[in-house]
Amino acid sequence: MAAESGHGDHQIDGRFNRRAVLVEEAQRRVLAAAGTVASEHVPLAECGGRRLSRELRATCDWPPFARAGLDGYAVRAADTALASPSNPATLRVVDTVAAGGLALAAVEAGTAARVMTGAAVPEGADAVVMLEQTAEAVAGGEKAALIKAAARPGQNVAPRGEEFRLGSPVAAPGELLTPGHAALLGTFGYAAVPVYKRPRVAVFATGSELLPVEAPLAPGQIRDSNSAMVAALIRECGAEPVLCGTLPDELAALREALARVSAAVDMIITTGGVSVGDYDAMAELLRGLASYSSSSPAPAPSMLLFNRVSMRPGSPTSAALLDGKLVLALSGNPGACFVGFELLAAPALRAMQGDPSPAAQAIIARLSSDIGKGSPHVRYVRAKLRFGGDGIVYADPLAFGKSSMMASLAEADGLAVIPSGSQGSKEGDVVQVLLLKRTC
Amino acid sequence: MAAESGHGDHQIDGRFNRRAVLVEEAQRRVLAAAGTVASEHVPLAECGGRRLSRELRATCDWPPFARAGLDGYAVRAADTALASPSNPATLRVVDTVAAGGLALAAVEAGTAARVMTGAAVPEGADAVVMLEQTAEAVAGGEKAALIKAAARPGQNVAPRGEEFRLGSPVAAPGELLTPGHAALLGTFGYAAVPVYKRPRVAVFATGSELLPVEAPLAPGQIRDSNSAMVAALIRECGAEPVLCGTLPDELAALREALARVSAAVDMIITTGGVSVGDYDAMAELLRGLASYSSSSPAPAPSMLLFNRVSMRPGSPTSAALLDGKLVLALSGNPGACFVGFELLAAPALRAMQGDPSPAAQAIIARLSSDIGKGSPHVRYVRAKLRFGGDGIVYADPLAFGKSSMMASLAEADGLAVIPSGSQGSKEGDVVQVLLLKRTC
Lengths: 440, 440
Description:
2 copies of one chain form a homodimer. Chain A contains 8 helices and 28 strands. Chain A is of the alpha/beta class. Chain A folds into 4 domains: 9-38 and 199-352, MoaB/Mog-like domain (Molybdenum Cofactor Biosythetic Enzyme, Chain A, 3-Layer(aba) Sandwich), CATH 3.40.980; 39-61 and 167-196, Molybdopterin biosynthesis moea protein, domain 2; 67-158, Molybdopterin biosynthesis moeA protein, domain 3; 362-435, MoeA, C-terminal, domain IV (Beta-clip, Beta Barrel). In chain A, helix 2 packs across helix 7 and helix 4 (226-236) runs parallel beside helix 7. The longest helix of chain A has 19 residues, at 334-352. The two termini of chain A are 31 Å apart.
């Protein structure tokens, strides 16, 4: 597995020639290499959680006609100006309009039409009086309504085009589609919705100590738990994992396995083998590549983007282009793997689906306990959010400092960002928390 | 569509004989009728977002052996007590242990073993010194390590069983499985995960004015946008929608359609037809049922649970058991349909998957603007959450008072709960906000 070393920066820099980049710079390089995937159409009822691939516009005014907001009588407000329970206005009923039905008669002075919720308000009427403020009657041998309250013009009527005008934008490219979008797109007749395809991501776990999950434990060995975790993280980003199993710490096997899958996927994620150990094959593979240069006119098909990031956990997290394919080499340590995914893989996967702001959503919260001593790296500490009765959000740090701890991975709502520097953060300090994209 | 009337309570009560229950009572009745679905096994990499159907326990101690936290030398701390860069301790190297490899030699006084991250720490050693604080050497013709810093006992060693003891609980029944859980379950060899099945939910839209989404608009008609919205909401709850199309406002057709699908699904959701209009077929169907009675010893296979809820929007929201199947009859008004789903259908679907606290997650936020005047009903106002730089959460109300407005459905993060009473809520008031379960 060979995960994180992560101490004694300058020594590592000197000895292993790995220069740390800031998280923001690492993100910039990964996003620049990410591109977007192709688009496809999905049935409207399956669009939730997908990202729109082009702007959609209103195909009609909405509402498409003046619409009754509730059950009652469509009237001319002026006819009801003096109406009250003791002095109701008596209006001849000229029509009854169901939702979906057509108004046959116009409402003229002294008349009304019975309308159901959602029905088109007949020509001439400018208000709807709710049924509960009316009574049925007969006047002059004809059906009539007693209106017991004065109506304001426009009351309980949604005018045509109140919400949308024909051609106005309904949803933007890259938007994550919610159930509310499904309602909007249905309204405007989008039975098939253009969305970005789900990026396909190959997942490899490297490390000679790794067993498949279904295997019995053997001395000194552990099961590959990162592949399933990364698969679940990939799905949360709307992408599709392609599980490629485990690889031993052998350069040739690794190189061959990545090359074999490369053309069939949009990104490759590996876990493990990125540290400074004697058997860190992924690190070895990346050492063989040309380094990133901000001054090169065009990116080389194969190049190292970075092999050290100024963050903890996950400082050996690396990224490269291999034959034009983005490869993210995450730490084998579960906690560091998780942080590397959230900071680098997740934004890349969202960007590939057109997300115009693919970084994790950041909120401000107050720390509910001290976070240790200073660190030369920015730290990303798993935290549980707690919403106080006072409207304040608190971040409760979980298992600080133990990046190998797995139990807290399942509980975390976010990553509290503790700035680098000589001091840690104190209880009550406001800190940025990156939200993990979760369904709860 | 015939959606919400929702005004003049006592009049409706008197005239239409529909007695409003409080939201909490409506939820209680629906949850009591919900039950749980059967369970099934899914592959580990597909468990994210599902709910566990039985407790899972640690199948071994974790870590399973004393584990090196980083690359370096396993030593006896006592041997390094006086070590410093200028006065390193010289220890004979007796072994090299890769992650996954076996330690062949014990570390005795005056010796050390080279260990990689994740390797088993050899017998006798009680600390690991990071590689960066060491140097290679030769002593007495044999390979040796110069240790340049004093080690604390236990340093950089995760003792066996530090995180989990064999048999201790790892995840509880009903828990929503996250990527972190996938890592944990993989660690303990759960290649197949027991989860509750996805409840199957039939979705009908009722209303003679409704056109299929793919149809061109006709005068007075609108497209069925609720079915797609409800389908997306159902999926967000981990359940599977079964779209059954639209039905006219005709009692016989409605009754027949529900009966036909009933045995194949776990729940039925209808939209529309629940109000007091002349063509509200769903309301008519429910009127024919025996009423809920808290004193009846056993629930009847068919009974009305409620047909009016003290909430706005969505007061005509109704629920029933029909031949033993839970039927939720939501308003046809998109906004009211949405609120009815979040308050009643979503908790029921989560409970059916074993969620021990299936109500929506409620947080406290500060209102960023006034919310109008009083209401005899509790109001659920769509809101966007905003996290201030001061650690305070603000709820920005969206499109207050327009339950038909669809644009804000796509934007809302939560429903702000405005208590019933003679006054509304003011800017700066703390209010409860029910979080919509979203992936962002």
